[in-house]
Amino acid sequence: MAKPVKPMPSQVLAGLKLLWRGSESALSGAWEACLQEMVLLYYPPFRANDDDEMMELATIALRAYVEDLVQYPEPTLRRAWREVRRAHKVERWPTIQTILEACSEGRPAIAGGSGRYRPATEIEREYQMRAYGQVRMNNVTDLDASYHRRQAEDKEAGRLKGPMQLNPFASKRMMH
C-alpha cells in the first residue's frame, strides 16, 4: 500500500463545491485568498490509508475552514494568510484559529497570549515597580504582564524569597 499524497487543490475544490451549502462567491473568495495555497503548500493535519480517503478527509476539513472564514472579506483573508504563511513553521496546515486570529488582529496568535508587545498600562507598570523596585519595560506582552502581577503578589505576600521555578509536574509554583 502506497502512502497517500497531498490532495490536489482542483480535486479538493470540486469536492468542496459539492458539500458547500453557502454562497458560491464566499467559497471562491476564501479559496482564492488562502485555502488553495494552503492545500498546495502544506500537508493536511491527519493521516489517511489511501488517496481517496485523503481527498474525502481534506474536503470535510476544508469545509470547516470555509465556514469560519467566509465572514471576512477577501482582502482581509489575503492579508491574514500572508501573515500566517510567513510565521508558519510546520509542514501541516495552520489551525483555523490561527487564521481567524490573523484576520481579526492582523497577525497570527501565539499560544498563551498574543505574543505582541504593546504599551504597558499604568497598572502593569505599577506591578513591575512593586515586583522589582523599578520599571524595566515600557512595552509588555500579555504573558509579561501576568508574570509581573504574580511576582508582585508573591513578593508582597512574603512567598518570594529567592529565584522562583515553575514545576511542570506540580499544580503550584515551587520555591527554592
Structure description:
The chain is mainly α. The chain has two domains: 9-105, no CATH class; 118-175, no CATH class. It is built from seven helices and four strands; from the N terminus they run αααααβαβαββ. The strands form two sheets. Strands 1-2 form a two-stranded antiparallel sheet. A two-stranded antiparallel sheet has the order 3-4. α1 runs antiparallel to α2.
Give the key terms.
mainly alpha; 5% strand; 7 helices; 2 domains; two-stranded antiparallel ribbon; 56% helix; 176 residues; elongated
Number of domains: 2
Radius of gyration: 22 Å
Order of strands, main sheet, comes to 1-2
Sheet with most strands: 2 strands, antiparallel
Q: Could you tell me the mean pLDDT? A: 79
Question: How far is it from the N-terminal to the C-terminal residue, by CA?
Answer: 56 Å
- Helices and strands: which structural class? mainly alpha
Count of DSSP helices?
A: 7
Which percent range describes the beta-strand content? under 5%
Any idea what the shape is? Answer: elongated
Poorly predicted segments = 106-113, 163-176
Written as H for each helix and E for each strand, in order along the chain, the element string is HHHHHEHEHEE
